[in-house]
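Changelog excerpt

This revision adds worked examples to the README so contributors can see how folded entries look when concatenated. The first example is reproduced verbatim below.
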Amino acid sequence: MLERITKDTFDEIYPIFEEAFPVEELREKERQKALLDRPQYQLYGIRNEWGILQGAMAMWDFKDFIYIEHFAIKPAYRNGGFGGKKLKEIMAWAGRPVVLEVEVPKDEMTKRRIGFYERHGFFFNDYPYLQPPMRMGQKMLPLRFMTMPEKISKDVYERYKRMIHRIVYNFEEE
């Protein structure tokens, strides 16, 4: 079950992201928490049928697509189908295209992560993408988009990229 997270319950969720993501892919705790004031930002705890917190998802709800910023399952609950099941529920609930960012496939772990998303209906889009810095002093991070229900055209990619950069990262292209 997805549980909407508020500022009161945020501290239970953030450690899941800290464990799952490299520091360059995660905002500082207080900056991440402040996003809960933004109307398009939604944060969810992912619980099993007994109410045990097993993961978390941060997403941005745009008019014509959903952008999943973070999706993480606690290590103890990985490889049992739980993450895939929850991802399918999220995609069915979204009712419109879903976009997420993945690392450029360079090693076994990044290839496995991409494979996980492909097995659950996402398509890898090999357009060069640079994620604006999540923290002060960091450089742009080379990533790629994965999308569902299909690959996207270059024009759609550019539109999604501009919207994500402007609204999520407060970054305007030159």
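The second example, added in the same revision:
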Amino acid sequence: MPVLIVSRVSIKDAEAMASYMEAAPETVAAYGGNYLARTPQIEVLEGAADYDRMVVVEFPDRTRALAWYESEEYRDLRQSRWNAAEAHIVVIPTEQ
């Protein structure tokens, strides 16, 4: 069953985050992931947006999503993102 990784991101260092955003798609694609949304253009319908950006990535299944997140390829990038931004990241199964 496909899953979504949904990230709310608050950027602390725009330059470092730009480098991360340039490099991350290759690692996502290597695990069968596909970006559905990756934008600062957020329209809030309820509540307050206390973040700068939303990212939604679809993976074929939970196993591949977690394999990507824990992969050696992504490890260094993840550390870069930790330095560049604060994020809240969840895995959500899709309904089929």
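Reviewer comment on example two: Strands lie at 3-11, 34-39, 53-59, 85-93. The helical segments are 14-30, 62-69, 72-84.
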